[in-house]
Amino acid sequence: MELSKVLFRSYFFLLSLLITGNEGWQHGAHHVRPTKLFVFGDSYADTGNYKKSEANSWKFPYGITFPGKPSGRFSDGRVLTDYLAKYLGVKSPIPYRWRKFAPKCLQFGMNFATGGTGVFDTLVSEPNMTTQIDNFEKLITKDSVYTKMDLQSSLALVSLAGNDYSAYFARGGSAQGLQSFITLVVNQLSLNLKRINGLGVRKVAVTTLEPLGCLPRSTVMSSFQQCNETENKAVSFHNILVQQVVAKLNNESQDSAFFVLDLFSSFSRVLKSKGAPLGNLKFETPLKPCCMGISRSYACGSMDEKGGKMYTVCTNPESAFFWDTLHPTQAGWHSVYLALQASLEEIH
Questions:
Q1: What are the phi and psi torsion angles at 109 (to 5°)?
Q2: Which of 35, 36, 184, 268 is most buried when burial is the number of CB atoms within 10 A of its CB?
Q3: What keywords are assigned to this protein (predicted)?
């Protein structure tokens, strides 16, 4: 009889430890560095989803710094996704388009981001952010690729670099109607963030818009000497709304699952300082791209009918912040990553 009482008490003691331990794990989960990264968005985060037949990111000289050949990244090397994965201590997640070719890489998460896309349909035929999230949900609910436990130890990166606005003006949108359209874009972005978190992803990081007026496509008008502040004012309105959306989502959730990666401030800081305070690199002419078409009719990577290069490339990509008219070099992204360090601490 005594033995049975001891066993009975021991059973409940162990049970209480398990329950307490489990609650402690759940409570402490917010202080554990994520082990998986899921990525949604556009070319600032794309590592190979855009169709090979259509994107210059699959053509030389893209990828010459890393991995030494074109890999679908819109840069000479690594992009934002790669640096965020590095911070987490995981391999850069495999692009969704290539998931069946490297099943062992699924353990690090997955990248759904595709160049040229936005929250709405843009000027490319690639999937918008809603469809990217649909594909993610299918992997969870139908294909059972990721479990609830996987998602609880994950981070989502959501990149929105401005393609919705390029499409807006290309379709005849007016400057007068821009503010209303920005509100529509950010409202849809808010729904996307909430949905990703609702699928079980523990932490969701969303980027602010970079200073669009400082991209070489805009600064070319001043021979790459000054930013277009009219564009940057519109960007500031977008970014204020993003900050408000994130604050609202966090107020509605119990665990402050959402946070902002401020690309506007990090880009501006690096461009203003020419990179000097953030590392050993120095960008002498930070607004000028390394790879340029020989005229405005051509882009980096363009070839003529005979295979001749219709672009020029700078001698040292590490000396340039921008790679082409829209995207940073690997050195540029690295300097932005250094400037984002304080924001990244919120991941824990």
A1: 110, -160
A2: 36
A3: Hydrolase, Lipid degradation, Lipid metabolism, Signal
